[in-house]
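TASK: fixed-backbone design
INPUT:
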């Protein structure tokens, strides 16, 4: 009896190993078809002090080459080592973006939509918006009358004037290929101890269930408008007392709201498939929030992943990319999602300020290399003042509109984002990429159609030469201009 059982287990083990070997061989064969001499790579470049803006700048043919030398700059890509699955890149359509959009001529509106969501543009596939107002609204508002604990007056009528029409047109331009999620900045004033949506404060415990139901009603109202809601974040920047709409949750408070109120409410309302993203704040406290929520099984079961912003650098120092790596290492089943970033302190004289674009490139490469699955910019469109913003928190967007002249202004940031979003498609897998030098930053993905995209950023003042290696001995030589971004596709 035991002998038969032993042989049965041995056979099962052998079959399992053979299946795994076959799967690995299929992956190897699929990815190594690109490591064949004669394959052609196409290069797109955006560079400072040039006319190059996502411009096709050449082609190179892979050839067999000896081992890389210490004297050359090298980027090594190994498609056989694959990591997280990419879900998309995009930006937020806020009230501000929609109000500015409405002021443009029909021709400029179409240009803007094509630039972001068209196949000839940078092809966004991810979208965020606020649940009622945020600072990038012309004023504070909610979807209910003040004091309505039963939510009997709930209505998204306000959003139907500007925001919803733009969102619908954007999704249509993207052929419906859009992951759409929503974030609240503050509960209605009466639900908070300080009775004010602005300036922080906390949700009163007696409104936990009411506020949880508010999310459900918002999701259902948007879906009644034909917009499929992929997910929500629990609270925008839950540790920041801002002069605009804001609300504070400690890690324990967010955990308990999720497991005792929001998660159960969405399940009860038939919305258990919606992705819930916790934190939605800076990288600096990411690990503490993850530890507190994800180590609680009853809370963790409702959380798809954790969202983060990049504003921890306001205190000086470098972005805390290490926090992403540690959270991914500790909780590999949870997803990392960049939910917001923008360049602050708007100045119309700095539309073409190159470090603004490089901040994006640096963040996107490092965020993806540490496991991030999606990346969401802040406002997709602002006006010539960096607004509108009802508390004058004026910022940059990748594209601005001068509403006085009906002009659309493309900043370098738009093109830097496009080096990722245009070529890396949802469903892609990040693959192993290592640069031999710190001043050439790089990441790579393999799309579901087998195309590999390697993005390289040169943030030095010098033109550089490098070799891009695929596998052990196949390479192409590439020149990258000073202060530039490249996408190499093959």
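OUTPUT:
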């Amino acid at each position: 009896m035991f002998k038969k059982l032993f042989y049965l287990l041995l056979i099962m083990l052998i079959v399992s190993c053979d299946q795994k070997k076959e799967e690995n061989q299929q992956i190897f064969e699929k990815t190594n078809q690109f490591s064949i001499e004669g394959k052609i790579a196409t290069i797109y470049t955006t560079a400072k002090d040039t006319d190059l803006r996502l411009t096709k700048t050449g082609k190179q043919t892979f050839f067999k080459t000896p081992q890389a030398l210490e004297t050359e700059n090298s980027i090594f890509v190994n498609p056989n080592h694959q990591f997280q699955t990419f879900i998309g890149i995009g930006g937020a359509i806020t009230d501000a973006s929609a109000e500015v959009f409405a002021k443009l001529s029909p021709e400029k509106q179409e240009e803007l939509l094509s630039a972001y969501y068209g196949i000839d543009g940078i092809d966004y596939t991810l979208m965020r918006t606020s649940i009622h107002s945020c600072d990038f609204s012309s004023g504070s508002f909610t979807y209910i009358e003040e004091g309505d604990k039963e939510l009997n007056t709930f209505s998204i009528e306000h959003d139907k004037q500007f925001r919803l029409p733009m969102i619908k047109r954007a999704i249509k331009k993207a052929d419906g290929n859009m992951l759409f999620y929503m974030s609240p900045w503050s509960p209605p004033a009466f639900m908070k101890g300080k009775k004010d949506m602005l300036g922080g404060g906390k949700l009163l415990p007696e409104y936990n269930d009411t506020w949880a139901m508010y999310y459900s009603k918002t999701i259902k109202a948007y879906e009644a408008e034909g917009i499929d809601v992929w997910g929500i974040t629990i609270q925008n920047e839950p540790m920041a007392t801002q002069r605009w709409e804001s609300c504070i949750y400690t890690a324990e408070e967010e955990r308990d709201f999720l497991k005792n109120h929001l998660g159960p409410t969405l399940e009860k309302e038939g919305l258990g498939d919606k992705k819930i993203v916790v934190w939605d704040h800076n990288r600096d406290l990411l690990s503490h929030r993850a530890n507190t929520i994800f180590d609680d099984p009853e809370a963790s079961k409702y959380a798809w992943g954790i969202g983060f912003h990049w504003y921890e650098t306001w205190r000086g120092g470098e972005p805390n990319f290490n926090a992403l790596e540690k959270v991914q290492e500790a909780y590999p089943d949870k997803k990392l999602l960049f939910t917001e970033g923008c360049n602050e302190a708007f100045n119309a004289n700095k539309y073409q300020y190159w470090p603004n674009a490089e901040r994006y490139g640096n963040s996107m490469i490092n965020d993806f290399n540490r496991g991030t699955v999606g990346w969401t910019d802040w406002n997709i469109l602002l006006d010539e003042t960096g607004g509108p913003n009802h508390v004058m928190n004026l910022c940059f967007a990748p594209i601005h509109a001068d509403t006085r002249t009906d002009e659309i202004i493309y900043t370098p940031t738009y093109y830097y984002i496009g080096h990722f979003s245009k070529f890396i498609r949802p469903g892609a897998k990040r693959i192993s990429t290592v640069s031999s030098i710190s001043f050439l930053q790089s990441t790579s993905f393999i799309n579901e159609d087998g195309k590999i995209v390697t993005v390289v950023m040169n943030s030095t003042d010098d033109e550089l030469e490098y070799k891009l290696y695929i596998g052990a001995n196949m390479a192409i030589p590439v020149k990258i201009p000073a202060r530039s971004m490249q996408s190499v596709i093959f």
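COMMENT: The chain is about 30% helix and 25% strand.
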